[in-house]
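$ ./design --mode recover --in tokens.txt
reading tokens...
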């Protein structure tokens, strides 16, 4: 109830930016501002105002300017050929005071600006959005206009610029394994801060993306899979005379006592140190610094080595011995854990 004795029963939000039938460019920030009053004529200065978008962009929370105005920046990240509607919600949580107002418009898709899909940055082994990435790991990011052409780095250490594209995280350049219009694979530098959120920016020619927030942990293991989806049959090989043998799948199942090699990403710092994006020299050993464990069918396996792999930059391998007591099957779950962080489950065949 205000000083004049009026008790508000409604909120009245109004868009003061964008405008009717707005047309905003893909990949660029747009100012979003609302003015909200109640039906007593008082400015709405406490509570909640947010906005949602029908093109699939993530919702945003508007910040109060303490005079009835609420503001935020909408970074337009997804194209919608059928147009887009912005719906603003104003409410006092826990009460019946709530109002929704919508504004239709369009998105221009002919911008040359590169665009990273929000939340697409992920461990290249798992491709699971929402999980942290780790120093030294190969990661993938997805979007549009990320590179002028498709190109893979021809050497080790990996190049920092490919087809006119470069990527930086926390201001540090990232070695690039592969670039294309819709995907970039890069290696996280070892010296980035961990257990925090960092900003990743991609530059293609003279244009750059909107910064993408990426959570970095000391380790976040993932096991590569046969179909590169991050699910199903893992890249887990029988180890024979120190060399990779067949994949541990149906028809070549592993048995108790067999030595196996698990191809991974995201195991974190190694010792001795090595430049990120470098494939280890033949015979060189760079061991993971944090404790590593493996379970197969819920049974703990003996780990004999965990470190960088000679298969390529940003790749790790874990060598283990198949434990006894694992129930036979073609879809036996395998999990790698580093410093308490577990990988998403993959499968192998066990006899």
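writing sequence...
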């Amino acid at each position: 109830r205000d000083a004049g004795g009026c008790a508000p029963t409604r909120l009245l939000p109004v868009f003061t930016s964008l405008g009717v039938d707005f047309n905003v460019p893909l990949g660029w920030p747009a100012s979003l501002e609302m003015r909200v009053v109640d039906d007593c004529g008082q400015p709405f200065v406490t509570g909640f105002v947010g906005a949602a978008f029908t093109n699939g962009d993530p919702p945003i929370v508007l910040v109060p300017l303490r005079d009835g105005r609420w503001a935020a920046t909408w970074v337009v990240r997804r194209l919608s050929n059928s147009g887009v509607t912005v719906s603003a919600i104003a409410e006092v949580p826990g009460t019946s005071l709530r109002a929704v107002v919508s504004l239709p418009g369009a998105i221009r898709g002919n911008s040359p600006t590169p665009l990273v899909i929000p939340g697409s940055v992920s461990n290249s082994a798992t491709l699971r959005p929402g999980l942290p990435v780790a120093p030294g790991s190969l990661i993938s990011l997805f979007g549009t206009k990320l590179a002028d052409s498709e190109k893979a780095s021809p050497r080790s250490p990996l190049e920092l610029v490919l087809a006119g594209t470069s990527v930086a995280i926390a201001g540090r350049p990232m070695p690039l394994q592969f670039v294309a219009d819709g995907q970039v694979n890069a290696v996280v530098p070892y010296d980035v801060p961990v257990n925090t959120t960092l900003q990743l920016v991609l530059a293609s020619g003279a244009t750059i993306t909107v910064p993408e927030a990426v959570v970095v942990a000391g380790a976040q293991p993932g096991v590569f899979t046969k179909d590169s989806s991050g699910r199903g049959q893992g890249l887990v090989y029988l180890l024979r005379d120190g060399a990779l043998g067949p994949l541990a799948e149906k028809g070549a199942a592993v048995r108790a006592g067999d030595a196996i090699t698990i191809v991974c990403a995201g195991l974190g710092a190694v010792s001795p140190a090595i430049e990120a994006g470098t494939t280890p020299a033949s015979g060189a050993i760079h061991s993971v610094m944090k404790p590593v464990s493996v379970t197969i069918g819920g049974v703990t396996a003996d780990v004999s080595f965990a470190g960088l792999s000679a298969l390529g930059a940003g790749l790790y391998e874990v060598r283990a011995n198949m434990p006894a007591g694992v129930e036979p099957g073609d879809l036996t779950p395998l999990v790698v854990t580093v410093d308490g962080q577990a990988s998403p489950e993959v499968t192998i065949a066990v006899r």
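exit 0
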